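Dear support,

I submitted the protein below through the web form. The confirmation email said the job was done, but the results page showed an empty box. After a refresh the structure appeared. I'm attaching both so you can tell me whether what I see now is the final result or a partial one.
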Amino acid sequence: MRKYHALPVALLAALALTACEDGTGTRNEGAAASTSITPGTSATGATPGEREAGATQQPPGDTTGTAETAGTTGTTQTTGKTGTTGKGTEKAGKPADRTRVSCNGSNTTVTAQPVPRPLNHMLITVRNTGSANCDLTYHPVLRFDEMQWAPQAIEDSKPQAVTTLAPGESGYAGVLLSAADGSGEAGTTGRKLTVGFQGRTPNSDGGPAALPALPAEGVYYDSTLRVTYWLRDMDQALSY
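What the results page shows now:
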C-alpha cells in the first residue's frame, strides 16, 4: 500500500515544478543556456529580428562601414593609393623627357672665333638660350660662303654620349682650318659662315642654321678643313 501512494506524490511534484518555471520565467536558467547554443542565435543573445536588421545593413561583399576600415581590407586600399602616387610620379617625369629638344639656331647663340693656339684652328661655341635641355647631335655642318662641299668630321673626337646642354650651358666644336705644313690645296678666304645642325639621325635636318659673324678679314681655309663632333669641353674641342 505504501508503494501505491508514493508514485502519485512524485508525479505531482514534477508537474508543479514545471508549471512554476514556465509561468514566471524567474528560474528558467536552463532555457537561457539552451537559447545560447540554438543554431542561428548570436553569442550576444540578439533576437532573430535584430540579426535580420544587421544583415540588411552589412550585406555580403559590402566594402562600406566597419569592414572597410578594419582588418587587412583597409591596409590593401592604402597600399593601392601609394602605388597610384608612384605612377603619378613616373608620369610627372615624362613631360620633362618630352621637353628635350635639338639645339639649333632658334634656341641657341652661336659664335665662331679663330684662336691663336693651336695654329689654324677656330672654335665654335653654342650656348643654350632656351628653357629646355637641348641636344647637340653628331657634328656641325659647316659651309663657308657658297662652297659646294662639306668638311669631314674628325672621327677620333666622337664622344661616348650625345652632348646635352641645360639652359645657359655651352657646347663646343673645334675646326681645323688648314694644314700647318701648307700641304692643303685650294686655299681661300671665307667671309660668311653657316653652321648647320643635324637631327636625331645622321645628316638629317636639326632645325634652323646659325650665321655667326666672322672677323672682318675673313677666315682662311683649304682642302684639309675638318671639324670635331660637338663636345662639352672647350680644350678637348681644340685638341684635334
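Response: this is the final, complete result; the empty box was a page-load delay. The radius of gyration is 47 Å.
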